[in-house]
Amino acid sequence: MKMPRSPFLLTLVGCGQLTLSFISPHPKAVAHRQPKTYIQYYRGDGHHHGFSNIVGGDAYLHQVGTLRGGDSSNKNNSDYASLSSLSVMELKRLLDDRGVDYRDCLEKRDLVERVVTSRGYRSGESTSGGLSPEENRVVNTFARASPSVAYIQTMSQQPLIQRGFSLKGTEVPTGAGSGFLWDDKGHIVTNYHVIASATKSKNPVIKVKLQGMDPQSATIVGYEPEKDLAVLRISSRNLPSPIEVGSSHDLVVGQSVLAIGNPFGLDYTLTTGVVSALGREVDGVGGRPIKGCVQTDAAINPGNSGGPLLDSRGRLIGVNMAIFSTSGTSSGVGFSIPVDTTIVNQLIRYGKVVKPTIGVNVADDRVLRSIEMQLKRELAGVLVVEVVQGSPADHAGMKASTLRSDSSIVLGDLIVEINGEKIICVEDLLTAIEARSEGETVNVTLWRQCDKRLAETVRVKLTSSDKLKNVGGLKKNNAWQ
Questions:
Q1: Active-site positions?
Q2: Residues near 398 by Cβ (< 8 Å), separated by ≥ 6?
Q3: DSSP letters along 299-314, please?
Q4: pLDDT in tens, 118-129
Q5: Exposed/middle/buried for 41, CB within 10 Å: 0-12, 13-18, 19+?
Q6: What is the pTM of this model?
Q7: CA distance 442 to 393
Q8: How far apart are CA 104 and CA 9, in angstroms?
Q9: Distance between alpha carbon 140 and the CA centroid of its chain, in Å?
Q10: For the chain, give me the number of helices (H) and strands (E)?
C-alpha cells in the first residue's frame, strides 16, 4: 500500500546554514510500512543535499538538535525534552509572551523548534497562561475568595394543598442575592433587603449555597434595616476559609477593587473596577441614609446585593448594596457599605444593633423650622422635647421644652454640637451618637432656652437604648411631630 503524499510544504528557518522543509515522502520510500517523516536538507547555496528520515518526536528533536548545533549538547537535549512534554497550548502561550508569530506552525514539533529558536529562551521558563502579573493577581484573588461567596434564595412556604392522596406544601421564591462567609462558625453576611421578605413571612425558607456545596437551610441571626445588613447562619461543617477582613478608612479614589456575586442568578461572577468616590450618602431600605458609602464602577447588578467588595489583595472592604441606574442594571455607579461601619458582630452577639443613647426625645426638624418662623431667628440645632427620667441626659441636667395648655411653648435646650461636631438636624444627632459606644462620654454643647448667649457644654455618658426601652429612648416625641 502506498503512502499518500503530504498536502503541505512547511518551511522552518533554523540556526546556522541549514533550512528544513517538510515535504511529501521520498518516492523510493513509499513501500515502508511504518509512517515516517522526511526532512529535505538545503544549504545556504539553495541546492538540495539529500533526504533523511526519522521516526517519532524524540528522534526528531535529537535530529534537529544536531542540525542546529552540529553537536547536540546535554543542555539542548534537556531543553527539547522539556518543551516536548508541554501541550500545544502551552507552547503557543510561550510564543505569545515573546511576540513570536507561529501561524505557519502546523505540528507540535514546529512549535517546539520555534520556541527554541526564538530569542531569550530559558530552560524551565513559566507557561502559566501567558497572563500578566496583574492578571495573575486577579485570577488568584478570585480563586481564593470565591469559595466563601454565597448564593442566597428566600422562599415562602405556601399552605398545604391536596395532591392525590397526600398533602404537599409549595415553596414560592421571594428573593435572591449574594452574601459571604464571615467566620468559621457558619455566619453569612448579606443585605437586609435580600432577606426582608423572609422576616415578614410566617414560614420563611432561606437557602444558602457555597461553591462546590449543596444548598443549605439557613436561619436568621439578626438584622438591622437602617444599616441594610443581616446575618444568617448555616451548618459550620466543612466550610471554606472566611474572607479576610480589610479596612475601609484608608481607601483612596482610583485603587482597584473586585466585586463577586450572583447577578441575575449567574453564580460566582467576578467584576472589576476602581474606587470612583468616597463618603457617599445613600438612602437605605430602612428609611435613613447610610453615610460614608464607597462608590465603585465595578459592575453591580440585581443579585449582587450582599456580596463582597474586595481590594486588590482580596480583603473585604465593603458590602455591595445598591446601584444608581435608570434602567435597573449597572450604569457604572455602584455603592457598598464600608466594612469599618458594619455592625456584624453586634448582630451575631445580640441579634440586633444595640444603639447608644443620651436619653432624650427630640422634635422633628419641620417643627423646629416652624418655631424659627415664629421667633424670627435661626435655631441651628436639635430641640430637646423630653428628657427620660434617670437617663444620662437627666443626670447631666439637660432641660426639655414644654408645651403649655394654651399651645404656647416654653423653650428648653437646643443641642448644637457633639464633641465639637456641629448638629444641624435630627439625622446629625443620631449619626453622631450611634457612631460611639455604650459607656463612652461625649461633650454636648447646648443653647439653654434656645438662646445662643446661654451656650453651655455638659458631659454625658452614653447608655444603651435597651436599658431605656421601658421608659423611652432616642426617638421623636409624637406630640412634637
A1: 193, 228, 305
A2: 358, 360, 384, 387, 413, 444, 446, 458, 460
A3: ---TT-TT-EEEETTS
A4: 755 444 444 455
A5: middle
A6: 0.60
A7: 11
A8: 10
A9: 14
A10: 10, 29
